[in-house]
Records
---
Amino acid sequence: MCDQDHFEDDRREYEARGLVTRKQFGMMLGAGVAMMLPRVANAVAVTETEVTVTTPDGSADCYFVHPSRGTAPGVLVWPDIFGLRPAFRQMGKRLAESGYSVLVVNPFYRTKKAPTADAGAATPLQQVMPLARSLNETTQMTDAKAFISWLDQQSSVAKNRKMGTQGYCMGGPFAFRTAAAVPDRVGAVATFHGGGLVTDAPNSPHLQAAKSKAQFLIAIAANDDARSPNDKNVLKDTFAAANLPAEIEVYAGAAHGWCPPDSTVYNEPQAEKAWSRLLVLYGKALA
């Protein structure tokens, strides 16, 4: 899970040092509404719908977007602690325009339908922490199986190509555990400023992910690395021992939460770098 206690301190620190700005926020239409992401070159036409996915624990409200023609590899997107919202719908649509069938989920469906954060990424963390604490390893694994199974039932999802999954902040461990839950189906895993990827527990997400068959992209915020400088080494050693390809990088000047465009620490250059590496990963692993 993301390092909640330091989030606002980090935002103020990075803004004071000139590493992030808020100029993009002038285009926001309202609380939780993200600014426009850069357009996709050669974007394909897409179809987008609000869908309901049945899981062992109920009905999850999700956003599904895919190329309007043909089939494409499926991708499961786990949002950060602020949940399914316009920023993640934009990110999902952008990925679909790049040639993927994308399911962006509301991980908190057991408690509340989206939107689950009143002011998007500007919502005080104390308001959303109870939602995050309501989830655990078991819910992550059962949800992962249900969401991947749902994707496989869609006519727009290519059955002869592996799927990808990506997670942000608390969604990082969810993505790792998705690869462990459905190892024969998931071929690529990406985490961006993922929190809690490495723990001392025997069921640590990184140990579970190492039992998968996936390729990995792990993008680490500079301030997360400063607090836990050995995590990247543990990840490198673990995936190397498992003979799993893994690109692991600390993003200089990027604070925890830098990827979603409605984040108070959004860093467009580094977010675009991470996005480009995501497309490279999917291009290799889901081909």
---
Amino acid sequence: MRKAALRATAWGLVAAGIAAPLLRKRIPAPAIVSQTIAFTAPLGLCVGMRRSRARDVAVCGLQMWAYVAAYKSPHDDPDAQERRTHFAYPIVADRLLGAGELPTVRLQRALARQGPDGPEWRTLDRLLVWTHWAWFMVPHGTVAYMLVRHPARFPRAAVMTYSVFNVGASFYWLIPTAPPWYAGAAGADGAPGAQGVNGSKAVRRMMVEYGEHFWRDGWGPLYSVFGGNPLAAMPSLHFATSLMAALLLAEVGPLAGALGFSYALALGFALVYLGEHYVVDLLAGAALTGAVRRLGPRAGPLAERFGRAVGNLEAVAHGGG
């Protein structure tokens, strides 16, 4: 009965963790409560199901389900979020880095083309947009590669990768920050501070422009799935997780590392050029990745004890203890 009760409790945590993000707008509870419940789902699965490759994949999926809720939750009340949004500090920092002008503005003025009928999409633009879209596969693809080809490296790769996601999401709650395209649009609409500091309405969100051109009527539904929080900009988790992927791949071999770093650099350029991120967002993302890598070994003993505790519960739930 103890085994059955433990398994039932574990699967109850899984069910609650899956349901919490879906119900977060309907339940009158602080967001941190539903978010905590969401992050218990991977732990519940580790107890309720024996260790296998399928379980590893499912745990990563549940972790990302909880992360997506953490990413989107601050935007559940857009007006309240915008009142807390920071516009000025990344613009000031990027103007310093760009010798008086935003690097995004410099790049778009030098490389982007506008014709009489609207944007003109050259090969470079298309490559950079697709580089941006490919990001959805890179960090998770790296973790999957470790699981299949280097299983001994998988646990550390998964912990490092998803730690970057989770720690980064906390900043979206604490300091919602406008990306270049949002600041430009807010300035055009008279939002406080954005127009005066930015000094330009020229920043385009080229990824969305090309998405509307390429996907046509399918763009709206597609973007609604992958969007959800336009003020999740600082730090750039696109860059942070891609950099982590490159570092993990470099531990496997020089060719894998070269591919990883080439992608991360191309993505960094794309994010700034397309108007998605400031340079300082990328620097903050790199700092986040470096911090996770540096602090990881210090947290290792605690993580091992926690892992053993979960493993003991799994053994009891399935007859090994």
